[in-house]
Write a sequence for this structure.
């Protein structure tokens, strides 16, 4: 369900904002790295940071703070790579962090968050 929602939101974003359509031109190795990157980020942000924060704060606060940290870690990379870092992108990254955090909290598993994050990464490349 999360995968379908995230892909649907990205398709809507492409219709509204437009996209550069890189997905078809990426080599298989780079596609693999998209999945690995999403899994590693989820292990760090939802698996370690959010889990630890949820032990000392309410889950909603832990999810929100982790989503802000997730946004903060992505912003410098976008600046260094001269990638689009407008308000739409910033909101999208933050909302991805919130959705993944909520999935982690509700299911108790990282797999739905990894799936949603991977779908988002692929969706950005439509």
């Amino acid at each position: 369900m999360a995968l379908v929602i995230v892909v649907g939101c990205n398709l809507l974003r492409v219709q509204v904002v437009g996209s550069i359509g890189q997905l078809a031109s990426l080599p298989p190795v780079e596609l693999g790295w998209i999945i690995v990157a999403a899994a590693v980020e989820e292990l760090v942000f939802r698996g370690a940071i959010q889990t630890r924060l949820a032990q000392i704060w309410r889950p909603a606060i832990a999810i929100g703070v982790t989503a802000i940290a997730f946004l903060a870690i992505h912003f410098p990379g976008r600046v260094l790579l001269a990638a689009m870092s407008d308000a739409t992108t910033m909101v999208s990254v933050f909302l991805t962090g919130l959705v993944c955090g909520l999935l982690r909290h509700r299911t108790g598993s990282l797999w739905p968050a990894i799936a949603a994050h991977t779908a988002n990464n692929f969706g950005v490349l439509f």
